[in-house]
Amino acid sequence: MAQVIPMKETSAIRLPHAVQVFNILNMRSVADEGDLTAKANVRNAALRLFAERGHDAVTVREIAAAAGVSPALVVHHFGSKDGLRAAVDSYAAQAFDSLFEMDGQDLAEALTGGNVVSLAELFARAFPHGSPLPAYLRRLLLVNDPAGAALFGRWYALTRRLLDAMAEIGAVTPGEDPAVRAAFLLVNDLALVLLRNQIAAAIGVDPLTPEGITRWAKEVSAVYTRGAFVAAPGEESS
Fold it and tell me: Which of 41, 79, 131, 170 has its CA 20 to 30 A from that of 12?
């Protein structure tokens, strides 16, 4: 097998000064958790049930019971289960997209700064153990839900944007197929969210915990920077 060319990218999305991003998201999360209105309580109950079982398998009556309210109140606030689902999708999308809000200065720092983290680490820190949001994202993406497709499209566009800009300043190798490279790097990080339980069973630790992220990032960084394969005897390196 031909030698894999080492790449400098150690993540699909590399963001410096991650604490600032985390603080923004955490402030929003705290505000949401402090919203004890019946409407927010219903939305949060629906989010958890949808993440566990899927939209179609959950009834309004079950959501109401989980939220400790009457089915009539659910309908009063959201109109129908479809209306509630739209509210949950909007809430989840806002939480996920909060990880990647970048202005011009943020982008410059992402290209030249230090203290970088991966997309998977952003998820691990922003959505701690017990949060239903990673499981909800997994369901949205794996069933090809339109909301999940929209999220993936936005994150892919950002990944392309970052990689193109980094290639221009010589921070990464551009590759022969930038579209595939951006998708590959994004999917590699999303794999920890999508296959979290399976990876945990395989390596003996939840990959979205500090211990799991440390183990995962160390090996992934080695593969990205030094390559995983050696040239077959007699073959020239590409």
Answer: 131
